[in-house]
UniProtKB/TrEMBL annotation:
Signal peptide: none annotated. GO terms for cellular component: cytoplasm; cytoplasmic dynein complex. GO terms for molecular function: dynein intermediate chain binding. Belongs to the dynein light chain Tctex-type family. GO terms for biological process: microtubule-based movement. PANTHER family: T-COMPLEX-ASSOCIATED-TESTIS-EXPRESSED 1/ DYNEIN LIGHT CHAIN, TCTEX1 DOMAIN CONTAINING 1. This is Dynein light chain Tctex-type 5-like isoform X1. Residues 17-61 are annotated as: Disordered. Residues 18-35 have a biased composition (Polar residues).
Length: 221
């Protein structure tokens, strides 16, 4: 009985050993003989590697983009703060600055010193308006130009006298010519006080004639 038990144990152990070792050998044979399995395994691994690399690249690019945006936003806020600070400084300087003292024009020693100077710009506007109303539709006639210039000079002196300060003498000179002839140039030269005296020149022209007016304002002490 003891011998039979030992033989049975040996048989059972052999059976269990064979049963446990056969599936492992069959799996090893299938792996070695199956060409598709050997080809499929390396094909899957690169795909997994490429996907992981793409995910890493996207993460890296996203991190770099977000970092660039953050730096740009910080730079923009810094510039805005600097501008606001500069504006505040300029406003504070303008508010706290001392008033500017304007130095009056000094009168030369040998010149006259009128209380009010001759209004050259205002006189020029008045003469231009007067010539436009009087000579807008006036045709050129050499026979009537002499009397026309005399009348216009008297009218201009009356108009200018209304806005001229006291103690000023007025001299009016006028020239009228035809536009169909050659051009002319009107010049003048005189000896006077450049500080107190002044001159106004105006010109006007229509289809047939041109007119040049000179008004001298000489201060008399």
């Amino acid at each position: 009985m003891s011998v039979q038990k030992k033989l049975g144990e040996i048989k059972l152990s052999r059976v269990t050993f064979r049963a446990s070792s056969r599936p492992q050998q069959e799996n090893a044979l299938q792996k070695s003989t199956d060409p598709l399995a050997s080809r499929a395994i390396p094909a899957v691994k690169p795909q997994q590697g490429e996907g992981a690399q793409k995910a890493a690249d996207t993460r890296q690019s996203g991190s770099t983009i977000s970092l660039k945006g953050l730096l740009a936003a910080q730079r923009l806020t810094r510039e805005l703060k600097n501008r606001v600070a500069l504006r505040r400084k300029t406003r504070a300087r303008t508010q706290n600055c001392s008033p500017i003292t304007i130095i009056n024009e000094q009168t030369p020693v040998n010149s006259a010193n009128p209380v009010h100077r001759f209004p050259n710009a205002h006189v020029k506007e008045l003469i231009e308006e007067f010539l436009a109303t009087k000579l807008k539709n006036e045709p050129y006639d050499p026979c009537t130009c002499a009397s026309l210039t005399k009348d216009l000079c008297e009218d201009i002196k009356k108009i200018v006298r209304r806005v001229t300060p006291p103690r000023y003498k007025l001299i009016c000179s006028m020239a009228i010519g035809s536009k169909h002839r050659e051009d002319i140039m009107v010049t003048s030269q005189c000896l006077w006080d450049a500080y107190s005296d002044n001159v106004t020149s105006c010109s006007f022209q229509n289809r047939t004639l041109f007119c040049v007016v000179l008004v001298y304002a000489v201060y008399f002490e």
